[in-house]
């Protein structure tokens, strides 16, 4: 199935604004997941002056067959200047909300948790009004490393489940579905005030019932925010698309997800985990953490 339907077309960006963002990124020698993972929303996000920064990369220690980020068995040593360069980019771009993610760094004992912590601290110092979202890998189940990241007090802890349990061995061969759910559950145990978030791709051969079960599993871990988007094959060497899911089905999942207790569900064919991430600020005002979480159904 190679022909994309009409609803997957994106608007042409205003290249002047895109160029300004790219100039900052090149000047500060920073990577973004927008570019490295070939995100279809790169034009829209760069037009709005936003980006999802990719730290400790761009080479990953895992080779997931759906992902366009480069794989490298021996990634480079961490750059001690990266946190300050990242903070300077946030300052220059005047970001109200920033998303910081990383490649998997299974070569590091803490999975890169200390670098996340340094980046959060640097952003806080340079732009104290900016809310921070970290999109983290599974850390190989190192819960002490998770606690280290949470000690830096980001507003949002995001970890993408990506797919349903049955497809994990094919889609995320070095990952573990139960471990991803457990990470989100433990994040709330460690830091009850954190907003937790996860994302799922569809179109890889899952059933509606399996998607709904994954959503229930995430709610059982008290996950607050969910993103649902269409998987798109980055190249012929990656996993093929099994189905292009219609916008109507995404709308049904959004309504159902809200009905079972998610505070926010962003669900559309072009949704990605950081798409319109800045909207979490409105959610924070509506559901301050001093308020009890919504009860599970």
Please give a handful of descriptors for the protein shown.
alpha/beta; 297 residues; eight-stranded mixed β-sheet; 37% helix; 8 strands; 11 helices; TIM Barrel
Distance between the termini: 38 Å
Radius of gyration: 18 Å
Question: How would the global form be characterised?
Answer: globular
CATH architecture: Alpha-Beta Barrel
Strand residues, percent: 5-15%
CATH topology: TIM Barrel
What about the largest sheet?
Answer: 8 strands, mixed
| Total number of beta strands | 8
**CATH class type:** Alpha Beta
Number of helices: 11
- Element-level helix/strand string: HEHHEHEHEHEHHEHEHEH
* CATH H-tier superfamily: Aldolase class I
Helix content: 25-40%
Low-pLDDT regions: 291-297
| Whole-number tally of structural domains | 1
Structural summary, described in words:
The radius of gyration is 18 Å and the shape is globular. The chain has an eight-stranded mixed sheet with strand order 1-2-3-4-5-6-7-8, with helices on both faces. It has one domain: Aldolase class I (TIM Barrel), CATH 3.20.20.70. The termini are far apart. Helix 4 runs parallel beside helix 5, helix 5 packs parallel to helix 6 and helix 6 (143-151) packs across helix 8 (177-190). With 297 residues, the protein is of the alpha/beta class. It is built from eleven helices and eight strands.
């Amino acid at each position: 199935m190679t022909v994309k339907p009409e609803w997957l077309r994106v608007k042409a960006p205003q290249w002047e604004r895109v160029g300004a963002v790219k100039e900052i990124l090149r000047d500060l020698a920073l990577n973004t997941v927008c570019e490295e993972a070939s995100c279809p929303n790169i034009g829209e996000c760069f037009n709005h002056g936003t980006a999802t920064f990719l730290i400790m990369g761009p080479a990953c220690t895992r080779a997931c067959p759906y992902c366009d980020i480069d794989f490298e068995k021996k990634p480079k040593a961490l750059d001690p200047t990266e946190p300050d360069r990242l903070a300077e980019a946030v300052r220059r771009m005047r970001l109200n909300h920033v998303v910081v993610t990383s490649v998997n760094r299974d070569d590091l004992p803490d999975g890169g948790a200390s670098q996340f912590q340094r980046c959060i601290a640097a952003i806080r110092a340079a732009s104290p009004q900016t809310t921070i979202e970290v999109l983290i890998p599974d850390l190989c189940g190192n819960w002490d490393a998770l606690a280290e990241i949470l000690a830096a007090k980001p507003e949002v802890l995001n970890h993408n489940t990506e797919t349903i349990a049955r497809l994990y061995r094919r889609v995320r061969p070095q990952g573990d579905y139960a471990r991803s759910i457990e990470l989100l559950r433990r994040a709330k145990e460690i830091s009850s005030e954190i907003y937790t978030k996860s994302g799922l791709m569809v179109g890889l051969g899952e059933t509606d019932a399996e998607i709904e079960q994954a959503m229930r599993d995430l709610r059982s871990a008290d996950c607050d925010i969910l993103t649902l988007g269409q998987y798109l094959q980055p190249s012929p060497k990656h996993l093929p698309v099994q189905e292009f899911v219609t916008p109507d089905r995404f709308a049904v999942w959004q309504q159902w997800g809200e009905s079972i207790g998610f505070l926010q569900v962003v669900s559309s064919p072009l949704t990605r985990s950081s798409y319109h991430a800045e909207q979490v600020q409105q959610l924070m005002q509506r559901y301050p953490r001093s308020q009890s979480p919504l009860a599970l159904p």
